[in-house]
Write a structure and sequence with these properties.
heterodimer, A: mainly beta, globular, B: 116 residues, six-stranded mixed sheet
Chain lengths: 113, 116
């Protein structure tokens, strides 16, 4: 069974731009969650989607948004990028939600200049 | 407030030593889930263990063991006879119900370096 895949793996953007990251979950998994990892703040929960609905959201500004498609693939969007958005963005999937074991993708490393 | 505290930021041991990684959590829920993940230098998080709040049995898996104590809100992880390949960042995480679904909160991680 293929694991969680994320594209692109690396991205360089400049301040003010927007970015869209993509995540394909393990086949059959309906829950997709996103995390931001930085050296200072560690791993922080962004949001979780299940059956195309956002079920929970972490403490991030509205510039961070996401969506999930009917095939469970998910995208995350960050608008008006700031230098502090430079991070590793991780996506994870599971069958039913965050009470289950999460299977993580390799991440997208975003650098904002 | 930090829901998951991993007080040890970095630990360095020599191969074959035993090492314990501490994790203390905070929750008001009676139903919750605890996890340990390993993040090797490659960056991808690897699942190690999941525990629900009703199962306080300690678990051993090869050189790995976990001690879950609800009385002290701790879920500690011990590696016996450490090996160089154990070098990684280890994260403890808590899943609890919040708003309309579960949320997963990670500790800051403990970076373990095992030297030959």
């Amino acid at each position: 069974k293929a694991g969680v895949t994320q594209t692109p793996r690396y991205l360089i953007k400049t301040r003010g731009q927007q970015v869209t990251l993509s995540c394909s979950p393990i086949s059959g998994h309906r829950s997709v969650s996103w995390y931001q990892q930085t050296p200072g703040q560690g791993l922080q929960f962004l949001f979780e989607y299940f059956s195309e609905t956002q079920r929970n959201k972490g403490n991030f500004p509205g510039r961070f948004s996401g969506r999930q498609f009917s095939n469970s693939r998910s995208e995350m969007n960050v608008s008006t990028l700031e230098l502090g958005d430079s991070a590793l963005y991780l996506c994870a999937s599971s069958f039913n939600g965050l009470e289950e074991t999460q299977y993580f993708g390799p991440g997208t490393r975003l650098l904002v200049l | 407030a930090q829901k998951v505290t991993q007080a040890q930021t970095e630990i360095s041991v020599v191969e074959k030593e035993d090492v314990t990684l501490d994790c203390v959590y905070e929750t008001r829920d009676t139903t919750y889930y605890l996890f340990w993940y390993k993040q090797p230098p490659s960056g991808e998080l690897v699942f190690l263990i999941r525990r629900n709040s009703f199962d306080e049995q300690n678990e051993i898996s090869g050189r790995y063991s976990w001690n879950f104590q609800k009385s002290t809100s701790s879920f500690n992880f011990t590696i016996t006879a450490s090996q160089v390949v154990d070098s990684a960042v280890y994260f403890c995480a808590l899943s609890e119900y919040s708003n309309s679904g579960y949320a997963l909160n990670f500790g800051k991680g403990t970076s373990l370096l095992v030297t030959p």
